[in-house]
Amino acid sequence: MRGLLIKPHPLSSPGTIGDYAEELGVELVGHVASEDGPLPPVDDFDFVVAMGAPWSVYGREVEPWIHYVVQLFREAVKRQIPVLGVCFGAQAFAQALGGEVRKAAETELGWSTVLTHDPDMIPEGPWFMWHSDTFTLPPGARLEAWTDAGPQAYTLGRHLMVQFHPEVRPDLLEGWSRAETSDVFERLSLDRGAVEEETGRRAGEAREPSAVSCAPE
Prior knowledge:
Number of domains: 1
Helix content: 25-40%
Distance between the termini: 10 Å
CATH architecture: 3-Layer(aba) Sandwich
Order of helices and strands: EHEEHEHEEEEEEHHH
CATH superfamily: Class I glutamine amidotransferase (GATase) domain
Largest sheet: 8 strands, mixed
Number of helices: 6
Shape: globular
Structural class: alpha/beta
Strand order of the largest sheet: 2-1-3-4-10-9-8-6
Radius of gyration: 16 Å
CATH topology: Rossmann fold
């Protein structure tokens, strides 16, 4: 089995999703959308994984290449090739299929539980979150999990989208944290070190439900 891994940003690592794919003998072919140009044909792959990014789907930073991602998602749906979207990936998929992405009323950062319709597919967590955007579901999608801030997971046919980060590992968070130049931790009254320490404790606990939620078909 061979999957296309869309990395919007060089730091968009698949983390524990990649670890699980390796255990299953699944090949992930990475493509950094912001640097590598047009995406390869989706029908060269059995499934697609689209990761998060520090940008917004509607931001100026993504304008040169977001249309490649949107078109690939539409083609994947047309050809019934499963897509797993994480955070930015889930938002871009929603936009591609008719949903709306916008600034959220509140930023969610840290480990939180979700309300879920199907805990066998999307356990309540806690899951790691880091996002300041939210979205409306595209037509035909089913809400699977949510918080007061907005949707946290949805399905559309064979496709699964999550707003949280099931892939997080301590090394990934360290990279994201180093690259973050805003005052988001201070604005949310969060201690950066405490969030990193909690991630070190919880990442192993989250790995098994991540595998359940994110295993490719």
